[in-house]
Every structure is written in C-alpha cells, then in structure tokens.
Amino acid sequence: MDPIRNPYAPGAGQRPPELAGRDEQLAAFDVVLERVAKGRPERSLVLTGLRGVGKTVLLNALRGAAVRKGWGTGKLEARPGQGLRRPLSSALHQAVRELGHRDEESVDHVLGVIKSFAHRDAGTAAKLKDQWSPGIDAPAVRGRADSGDIEIDLVELFTDLGGLAADVGKGVGIFIDEMQDLGPDDVSALCAACHELSQSGLPVIVVGAGLPHLPAVLSASKSYSERLFRYQRIDRLAREAADRALEAPAADEEAAYEPDALAAMYDATGGYPYFIQAYGKAVWDLAPRSPITAADVAVAAPEAESELAVGFFGSRYERATPGERDYLMAMADVAAAQPDSDAEDSVHSADVAARLGKKPQSLSPARDSLLKKGLVYSGERGRIAFTVPHFGRYLRERG
C-alpha cells in the first residue's frame, strides 16, 4: 500500500489521526470549562497512566478545548531537578497573551507579578546579570509573588492571574506534563495554590498528567490533595475503541481491515495507543493491498516489534546501568512467575531481591535510581512495577 498515504502516527505525544476512546474525558472537560468560566466550583484535574497510553496526547487535546473556549493556556513539562518558577512563568506569560485582556494596565500588572515570581529564587538574591528573563517587557511588581517562599508566591500569582481572567469572563488553564517529576516543595506549593483557588472560586485550573503513582506523590505533600483534584486513570483502549483507532484513518484513505486482522492487531498491541500506531504504520507499509488481513499483520509484526525495541523500549533500557538492568530483569522474571500474571502487574521488592540473591536494603540504590529515571514506579509500599507496558516481555525476549 502507498506509504505516502500511511495515516498512522507513532510519535511521542503526537496526536493520532483518530483520538479514539477518550470521548468521555473530552466531554467532561467541556463541562469543567463552562462551569469554571461561570464561577462554579470545580476541581483541577490529574491524568495518570503508564507510558504509551496517550496521556500527553489527551493533555494537548484538553488544552485545545480550552483554547477554543477563549481561555488563556500554558503548558510545561516537569523535569527532575528543575524548579517550577521558570517553566511556569513562561507558560503563564503565554496564557496572559492568549486571554486578550484589553486593559493594558491590568495586563502589565499581572505580567509584572509573573516576572517577579520568575526572578525570585528561594533563599537567594541573584545578581541582575544572572537573572533569567521570561521575555516580559513590563516592570517587575515588588512585594507580590516575590517572597522567596514558593507556596506564598504561587498563591499570590494564581490569585492575580485569576482576577485578570475573571475580568473577561474566561479562565486560565495550566497544563503540566510529567507532573510526578516536580520537586516536593513545588508539589506542596501547587496543592496549596489549588486549594486557595477552590476556596476563592477564581477561574484558574491545573491539569496535570503523570505516572500511576502521581496521586501518592500529591497525597504525601498535602493530606487534602485527594479532595483538590479529580483523578482520571488513562488506560489501554477497549477493543471497540482500538478498532476505531485503526479503521477510521484507514477509511479516510479508502482502505479497510478484515475482522481477523483487527483481532490480530488487538492481540499484538494490547490496546495501548502508542503500540496501535506503531503496528498500524508497519502493517500499512507492508500490506500489498486493501483489505488488510491477519496474514499481513503477521508479516508486519516483526517490523513493528523491531521499531519498538529500538525507539520505545531500547531507549529506556539504555539509560539503566548494568546493576539497574539486573534489577529490571529480575522484576520481569518475578512478574512472569506470578500466578495469573499480567504483563503490567507489580511485584514485591523482596521477591526481586530474592531472585537476585541479595538483601532488599542492598538494592535500594538501584531501585531509587530507576524510580528517578521513570523506568519503574511504586504504587504502594513494598511493591514495584514498570512504567512502560510490555517492558517485562521485552526484557525476557531480549534475554
């Protein structure tokens, strides 16, 4: 089949041609946008799930919905070891520009507060020549969001930003990807700011996306965090949605799948959106004609698996040290030996240690490093799981 017309998009965070299986989340967010803009109480939103389930794609789709409603939006990606002030300041600068408030004095005031927030590093007084500039022309507003205490400053910043949005009957959405990588102080400050927003009714919401243990990260910071956010677990697609993700783009290119081919694709991908796109692309390129058959899927599967082994699994495996790779392999073996094992099951840390013939305490450095690298997560005390679906199978096949 013509590779130029291949409709599938197996890119990181790249929106697929058919955003299947997420209609419920999109519809619910439209309600949130309308309620917040009208001053109705609403909680901020947190999306959680494994890598490859489409959290970033959905986060971008929600942001697009906010933009279409005339909201001001800004997006940032949290990174380990990076403070919140700089990326958040850039995101909020964009949000203010999108709001289109016509009172220049009010806009300059909020931009000045953002600038003050950006320039104030907790516990330090950086020299002017060393200060990072967020590209804001307005002068910094002294005495607002510049105390050096991130929790105080973020509450003041969000309050002023919410007032600006309320003036024009719109809202502001702050979209944070990889939210679990925020530092403890920044997580605490973000929770406190969301708490203040919920009490004041200002039209500002935070929409975060992260790995499955993100709710535990938030709860460890503030005990009331479970009441601040509405949590949505983003999982693999059900069979019907997975079929639609394949069939709708193909139909746009006047192609189709036989029923057996769709069943084979679901068996191969497990319904994970990233895998659906990867297999879809490989099958399209190698299938001789439409309709695509189960035999075509079988021929293309090694090509898709090879691509995933390099770009999806291999790139993560290469980040691990030899000792960390041993830990990962032991996790895969323990998971495979569990009765009624699912590829995504968590395992006991003690069982991993036993598999390696070592004491659990001696493996803590490797485990902690893997957690920081985002290769594993701990959803509950004493248990560990891969952040990447099918990673255990990849490790066992790799040998």
What brief labels describe this structure?
single chain; 399 residues; alpha/beta; Rossmann fold; Arc Repressor Mutant, subunit A; 3 domains; five-stranded parallel β-sheet; three-stranded antiparallel β-sheet; 8 strands; 9% strand; globular
Mean pLDDT: 91
> Superfamily at the CATH H level of the largest domain?
P-loop containing nucleotide triphosphate hydrolases
Q: What is the H/E string?
A: HEHEHHHEHEHHEHHHHHEHHEEH
Helical stretch tally: 16
Low-pLDDT parts are 122-130
Strand content: 5-15%
Largest sheet: 5 strands, parallel
| CATH architecture assignment name of the largest domain | 3-Layer(aba) Sandwich
According to CATH, the fold-level topology of the largest domain is: Rossmann fold
Instruction: Bin the helical content.
Output: 40-55%
The side-by-side strand order for the widest beta sheet comes to: 2-3-4-1-5
- For the secondary structure, the number of strands is 8
* Structural class determined from secondary elements: alpha/beta
Q: What Rg is obtained from the alpha carbons, in whole angstroms?
A: 23 Å
Shape: globular
Total domain units: 3
**CATH domain class of the largest domain:** Alpha Beta
Distance between the termini: 35 Å
Protein name: ATP-binding protein
Region (Disordered): 339-365
Domain Cytochrome c: 166-317
GO molecular function, one term: metal ion binding
